[in-house]
């Protein structure tokens, strides 16, 4: 009976110690999350139609202008799209309907839209290349008898689509004051991005610490 009592006491002491260890680990995980929530709650919301939302729209357009100026054939990496080949009905002499030279580029819009300005999102979803209820772009080319040339043509069409859409929806240049606000916005976005990286790094560090506490 005495040995049983000692064993029981040892067991409860072990459970109590493990509980305290887990509690400390959970507290360390919650602390950075609480800091992040306070940081997120400090960002003011923008009501539609307000003066702040108008300024936000101006900033979106200015960012889009800067993006358009830097737009080139390498803006959208080729590995993001899916290329397939099929029989061509275009020029090619005896190769027509015998060689799979027709190229088809399928690009999911959720991937593309993350790389283009916000003001282009809606027009691209209803463009002439949009398929799957605006969820992807499907661009084809069979102008050449060579696969590589038709692939290049598909990406040229994508580049032309982005440029023409941007030129249609983005208004002219803004004032120096608006350009300064854009720079301030970019600086704030970079700071928020760094805060997010620090938060993720802290989470990983806390996970490693909690695992070492269990060992």
TrEMBL record:
Cellular-component GO terms for this entry: mitochondrial large ribosomal subunit
* GO MF assignments: peptidyl-tRNA hydrolase activity; translation release factor activity, codon nonspecific
Q: Where is the composition biased (Basic residues)?
A: 195-206
The Prokaryotic-type class I peptide chain release factors domain extends over: 76-206
Q: Which GO terms describe its biological process?
A: mitochondrial translational termination
Q: Where is this region: Disordered?
A: 169-215
Q: Which InterPro entries match?
A: Mito_Release_Factor_mL62, Pep_chain_release_fac_I
What residue ranges are annotated as transmembrane?
none
The record's PANTHER family line, in alphabetical order, gives:
LARGE RIBOSOMAL SUBUNIT PROTEIN ML62 (PTHR11075:SF54), PEPTIDE CHAIN RELEASE FACTOR (PTHR11075)
Q: What is this protein called?
A: Prokaryotic-type class I peptide chain release factors domain-containing protein
Natural source organism: Penicillium atrosanguineum
């Amino acid at each position: 009976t005495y040995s049983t009592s000692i064993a029981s006491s040892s067991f409860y002491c072990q459970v109590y110690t493990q509980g305290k260890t887990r509690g400390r680990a959970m507290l360390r995980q919650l602390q950075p999350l609480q800091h992040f929530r306070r940081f997120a709650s400090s960002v003011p919301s923008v009501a539609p139609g307000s003066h702040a939302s108008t300024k936000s729209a101006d900033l979106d357009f200015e960012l889009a202008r800067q993006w358009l100026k830097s737009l080139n054939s390498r803006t959208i990496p080729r590995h993001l799209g899916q290329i397939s080949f099929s029989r061509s009905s275009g020029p090619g002499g005896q190769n027509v309907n015998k060689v799979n030279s027709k190229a088809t580029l399928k690009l999911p819009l959720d991937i593309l839209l993350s790389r283009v300005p916000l003001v282009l999102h809606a027009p691209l979803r209803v463009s002439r290349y949009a398929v799957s209820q605006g969820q992807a772009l499907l661009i084809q080319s069979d102008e050449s008898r060579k696969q590589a040339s038709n692939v290049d043509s598909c990406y040229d069409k994508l580049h032309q689509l982005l440029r023409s859409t941007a030129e249609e929806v983005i208004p002219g240049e803004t004032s120096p004051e608006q350009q300064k606000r854009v720079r301030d916005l970019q600086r704030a976005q970079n700071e928020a991005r760094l805060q997010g990286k620090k938060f993720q790094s802290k989470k990983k560090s806390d996970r490693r610490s909690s695992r070492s506490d269990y060992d």
